[in-house]
Amino acid sequence: MATQDTFEGKNTSSLSDESAFQKGSARVTYRRFKNKSAHALFLGATLIGVVILAILLYDIFQRGLPYLNSDFIQNFASRRPSQAGIQAALWGSIWVIAVTAPLTFVIGVASAIYLEEYSQKGFLYRFIQLSIGNLAGVPSIVFGMLGLTIFVRQLALGRSVLAGALTMTLLILPIVIVSAREAIASVPNALRHASLAMGATRWQTIRQVVLPYSLPGILTGTILALSRAIGETAPLIMVGAVTYVAFNPTSLMDEFTVLPIQIYNWMGQPKEEFQYLAAAGIIVLLAILLSMNAIAIYLRNKFQR
Amino acid sequence: MSQSNRFKRKKTFRNTLEGMIPKILLACAFLSIITTFAIIFTLLSETVSFFQEVPFLSFITGTEWTALFSEAQQQFGILPLVAGTLLITVGAAIVAIPVGLASAIYLSEFAPERVRKVLKPVLEVLAGIPTIVYGYFAITVITPMLRFFMPELNFFNALSASIAVGIMIIPMIASLSEDAMRAVPDHIREAAYGLGSTRLEVALKIVLPAALSGVIASFVLALSRAIGETMIVTIAAGATPNLTANPTETVQTMTAFMVQAASGDISFQSIVYKSIYAVGMTLFVFTLVMNLMAQWIARRFREEY
Amino acid sequence: MKHHAISVQDLNLYYGDKHALKDIKIDIEEKSVTALIGPSGCGKSTFLRTLNRMNDLISGVKISGVINVHDQNIYDNEVEVEMLRKQIGMVFQAPNPFPKSIYDNVAYGPRIHGMRNKNELDQIVEKSLRGAALWDEVKDRLKDRATGLSGGQQQRLCIARALAVEPEILLMDEPTSALDPISTAKIEELVQELKQNYTIVIVTHNMQQAARISDKTAFFLNGDLIEYNDTDTLFSNPEDQKTEDYITGRFG
């Protein structure tokens, strides 16, 4: 079988029909071995992430879980570890997010609609796009400087919930815009044309066709961006969220603290017990973030077309 | 002329309102441009007044940073902070690039769909963990582990922080590189398989070269993120400006200094306050250059499939 | 003699530098079916889209000339495309129902034009679905998602959706090219019924289809309107050599 002989290359062993494609030469064997070892190596590298996540969660849970009880949720900050809790920080985070969420959603989606549905692809479009791209890469602490200068000092909002929330809004806006644009761009043009051909205006088409279609994607992106805002520490330190607060905010102009800052504060305390409180705080923070992630993933899967 | 009104609506309030919608949307999109300029302007204004007191040359060439010392001993040479930042970044790159790239290759080229469905969300969770948690992980797990092997190691050291920063950016490299590799169309892979290539050969000789611009851009973006990372280094690397290339020593990064200075009680008129802006400006320039570089690489060397 | 529903004079269209329609002059008769045929890229679809100004959506398109509908030039400055498109409906190449219920798809047009009354909407939905020969198949599941219908049903739903705003003219852009032969036959049958009440302009790739369903046929080539005549005459006795070459399959 001359043809199979050439296919097998330099194989010296005698050929039978069955083995023609099965027995490899030494070189093929070596290539397959390399392939298999690389496969194992790459899988191993990917599993590093899983292992680290497991260790991290284990470490935090075994330290923090014993301290996690209803007193911990209900108590305010205290110099005595046994009485310290996260109520003020929890409410501070809720206040900040309650302001940030509607602002980023409205401004982010409006920007995305403008860029995808209205804008001419000219100079202004490119300039806005460039700005958003670069803002997404600006370190969060620099947004903190911006918040400190503009909101805390220039607009004289002080170290308030409002100043913190506005800073967070600017920080996550690029993420919301980018994901909303992706969602809007995924709406098939055929649907826009169908609507316009019936005499709908652009805005009617956006309201009735484009937004309902892209809403799950937009919401997923917004929730993920908000979960980033909940975990951010540095910008709020710059804005001056206070580390020791023993009351819940009652208005937008109140001083406040948030979960990550409370955790950071405990980490810096010399008493060993505060480290465990920090771990308990992290558990609460992670629980919030993971439930937000779960909601986002649920939305994405439920409405995926 | 009733004929000429055939294709004309009555002017109503609603129609007028609809005409304003694009302008409102544009105003929202314009906020991103305003934010960009506001960042540059706020950083610049205080930086300029900083340089009226500290010569520019001694700022960028000075090897002592003692901003928080008493006035007589203050020195504003930024090199120690830059060195600390770069030390952490290089360490993070050494950890994250091999692991992140290997994960990307595995997920894009080797992983069965079932495995991918499990591993992707794990990486997403890892990417969503707040940096303060990684900071906690650094001082409660990584540092003690390192000290087990190197008993002389400082409690606060660059090594532990850079490992934690590296872990933080692994998901970013993995997912951005994976995106770039999955964008390589299947027919190119099939051509290579058709010639008898193994998976490894397809991955390394076909897919990776084709996706190289995206992969390298992901490295640059991730390292820019590492440069701007704040909480991990503030918690784990220490607070001593130190011009060194030795990762076992305590160092302070640009971001860590900003947090340290902003946490203290400083007057808005003081030179220390202004120095935060000068350091912030330096940080901003570093990350901006890297982000522009990443965009340029992605555009310049993009393969047209 | 029938009235002219649409009267086109000296229509020229440019995509950037490309001269896509050249000096088109054509009168389209009321309550009849006019087929536009020609090879790919000849300009027939582009021409169809000038009739309800869908080309306005593409940047870089320049149009000159006059298209009169009821003695009103639709390219006049004071014409609002929304009102124009309400009166000149369109059905597209691939069925494109909205991801909404069957009912909401048909009610979409009347609603955006301001109808809120539930009874009236119900009536229009039923009338339009009957008009598109779909009512019997879907009357028990109006609340179901339209995307669950078969391709042929989806296309008839799109026709019903276009009918619901009560246009006078219906533009169809290769409406059967994505459908199987049985669904195609149903749509062709439907077109025959619709011409009692509507002026229909249909772009088709399929010359047999044009011959079967149209009263008049226009043959386009490279942006020129080569020949326009009664369908029977055009297919049996073309005046222009190029038309003959095309319909006998010598090119295209």
Automatic annotation (TrEMBL), chain A:
It is a multi-pass membrane protein. Residues 90-295 form the ABC transmembrane type-1 domain. Keywords: Cell membrane, Membrane, Transmembrane, Transmembrane helix, Transport. The keyword Cell division does not apply. InterPro entries: MetI-like, MetI-like_sf, Phosphate_PstA. The chain crosses the membrane at residues 40-61, 88-115, 127-151, 157-178, 274-299. It is found in: Cell membrane. GO terms for biological process: phosphate ion transmembrane transport. The keyword Iron does not apply. CDD domains: TM_PBP2. GO terms for cellular component: plasma membrane. Pfam families: BPD_transp_1 (PF00528). GO terms for molecular function: phosphate transmembrane transporter activity. Belongs to the binding-protein-dependent transport system permease family. CysTW subfamily. NCBIfam families: 3a0107s02c. This is Phosphate transport system permease protein PstA. The lineage of its organism: Bacteria, Bacillati, Bacillota, Bacilli, Bacillales. The gene is pstA.
UniProtKB/TrEMBL annotation, chain C:
SMART domains: AAA. One of its GO terms (biological process) is phosphate ion transmembrane transport. It is found in: Cell inner membrane. GO terms for cellular component: plasma membrane. InterPro entries: AAA+_ATPase (IPR003593), ABC_transporter-like_ATP-bd (IPR003439), ABC_transporter-like_CS (IPR017871), P-loop_NTPase (IPR027417), PstB-like (IPR005670). The keyword Transferase does not apply. It is a peripheral membrane protein. Its main location: membrane. Keywords: ATP-binding, Cell membrane, Membrane, Nucleotide-binding, Phosphate transport, Translocase, Transport. GO terms for molecular function: ATP binding; ATP hydrolysis activity; phosphate transmembrane transporter activity. Residues 6-247 form the ABC transporter domain. Part of the ABC transporter complex PstSACB involved in phosphate import. Responsible for energy coupling to the transport system. PANTHER family: ABC TRANSPORTER I FAMILY MEMBER 17. This is Phosphate ABC transporter ATP-binding protein.
